[in-house]
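TA notes. Do not distribute before section.
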Amino acid sequence: MIDFAKKPLFLAPLAGFSDLPLREVVKNFGCDVTISEMISANALVYEGKKSLKMVQKSPNETPYIVQIAGVDLNNIKKAVEILNGIDGIDGIDLNCGCPVPKVVKQESGSALLKNLDHLKRVIETIKTTSKKPTTSAKIRLGFDEKIPELIARACQDAGADYIAIHGRTRAGGYTAKVDYEAIKIAKEAVKIPVIANGDINAQNADFVLKTTNADALMIGRASIGNPWIFAQIKDAKSVSGALKKQIILAHFDAMIRYYGIQGVSIFRKHLHQYSKGLSEAASFRDEINRIDDLDLMRLKIENFF
């Protein structure tokens, strides 16, 4: 379902941002593959209601991948069995890159990069249990040191159909310079498709593809307040103000459909990003921070943008 020959664009899983409304919007404006926010396998098994809402997809999300995080093989298996019973999921991705301390403390996320044997067992558990078309992993270059080829081979040997590589180690967080050459090393070490991730924007997308020789690109933080980036990369031209306004309003409407009236206040964080760099942005943010009325918020968005 994912045609890597066409160098597809993925939306990266972003905690607190890549929910159903954002994914619905980017799918309409150039994104090829969407991925859920990271979902804890333990939470899916023991606190199902909230996690199951995070799994929900928009009708336009095809292909749609669900990303899970975990380390306990029994809970991983149970989580995958739950996802097997949900239609519309085209693949299950394992998070092996999250650098957040509370995730690492549980030996999950990027902590799996310290124990490649167990990383392989987790991927193998997903692969053998899943009834979905694809199994994949999102990794970093390493935990403290860069070992991209070893990690990539471990994922391939465990049965991953493709991998996405964030071009930093866990120690590099989100501030170290992205090492695209290291992604290329991983790409050369395996036969499965490799997706490049990390500080990719409309200006450097072609450079990243050529440098890494990757089969696809995954866009993360550059899409926040800028979901038209997928259209920019594909068309290699700027997006008109009219289209930007259309996208922002479509995003707002999708938030209301998904969250109800609560979507008005939740959308403020997106409006803060959308308004960055624009004239009168500070006063606009101050104003919307006090608005809870749906119609008034929509009017303010229409007038400002």
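Switch to the second chain here.
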Amino acid sequence: MTTTVLVECGEALYGPRWQSSLAEALGVADRTMRRWVASGEYPESVHADLLRLVEERIADLAQIRDRLLAV
């Protein structure tokens, strides 16, 4: 995974001020998130955690879509 993907996931999940929210969701400090972005180095486990967060958001949006379609 590249830093670009990390940033894209963060922005898609939490908007333009994503770093604090993503850090909280991953259970790390804001400073850790900023270091990961700056260095491009982060634990391999971040990939699986991001995938989980994205899949959860997809499921949430699918439920909302279904409710909208039912109207």
